[in-house]
Amino acid sequence: MTSKAQLRKAALGLPEVEEGSRSGMVSFSVRGRGFASLTEDGVVQVWLTDADAEAFLAKVPGERLARAGKPFGIAVPLAEINGKDLNELIRLAWRCRAPQRLVRAREAEPADSDLPTSIGRPATRALRAAGITHLAQLATWTDDDLLALHGVGPKAIRVLGEALHERGPR
Questions:
Q1: Helix (H) or strand (E) segment spanning residue 52
Q2: Which structural domain, as residue segments, surrounds residue 71?
Q3: Are the C-beta atoms of 37 and 28 separated by less than 8 Å?
Q4: Source organism's superkingdom (predicted)?
Q5: First vs last C-alpha separation in the chain
Q6: pLDDT tens digits, the chain, 170 residues: what are they?
Q7: Do 53 and 120 sit in the same domain of this protein?
Q8: Which of 71, 107, 115, 146 is 20 to 30 A from 165, alpha carbon to alpha carbon?
Q9: Phi/psi at 8 (5° precision)
Q10: Same domain, yes or no, for 21 and 67?
Q11: Whether residue 114 sits in one domain with residue 33
């Protein structure tokens, strides 16, 4: 089960995201294009590509959203989704609506990153999506916070812990 605070953290951790209100719902947009909202009854509504929507609905309970008969995303009860899946859902929705130039810039590997490559590409992508490109940035993150990121698992936590230990206390 996740909370409104976790939704907010996941959305506002992405580049150029603004929080607003639309029809009584908390909403998030990138460059003026809405990508996620939370209804008053606790349902997260997101824009997704058809492929992402189908893949996501195969693993979490929810329903397709359509406007004028054309599908554009999904609705998922916030209480029915775990933190890892929520982070992935919000990242996918952001990618669906953000300008491609912004998406490419976000996903580009920083040249000066000191994250160990042995954590794996999914963990590296998840950390970059959360704005983490250097080990020093992990000082404010708990293991549980990191594990909530889609792509970060126990192996990545162990490797990051070892790398931090080599460089000094966390």
A1: helix 50-57
A2: 4-105
A3: yes
A4: Bacteria
A5: 29
A6: 788 999 998 999 888 999 999 888 999 999 999 999 999 999 999 999 999 999 999 999 999 999 999 999 999 999 999 988 999 999 999 999 999 988 887 776 566 788 888 998 888 888 888 888 888 888 888 999 899 888 899 999 999 999 988 877 54
A7: no
A8: 107
A9: -60, -45
A10: yes
A11: no
Place of tokens 């603004």: 18
Residues 71 and 93 grouped into a single domain: yes
Q: Are residues 42 and 10 in the same domain?
A: yes
- Residue 125, both tokens: 């992508």
Calpha distance 90→8 (Å, rounded): 10
- Residue 90 belongs to domain with CATH number: 3.90.1150.20
Residues 6+ away with beta carbon under 8 Å from 58? none
The C-alpha atoms of residue 53 and residue 26 are separated, in whole angstroms, by 21
In the numeric block, which tokens belong to residue 51? Answer: 């492929």
Q: Distance between CA 137 and CA 29 in Å, rounded?
A: 26
CB 77 within 8 A of CB 43: yes
> Is 76 exposed, middle or buried (CB count within 10 Å of its CB: 0-12, 13-18, 19+)?
buried
Residue with the two structure tokens 């000094």: 168
- Name the strands in the sheet holding 70-77, side by side, starting at the edge strand that comes first in the sequence: 17-22, 25-30, 33-38, 43-47, 70-77, 63-67
Asked whether 33 and 97 are in contact (CB, 8 A), the reply is yes
Provide the number of structural domains found in the chain.
Answer: 2
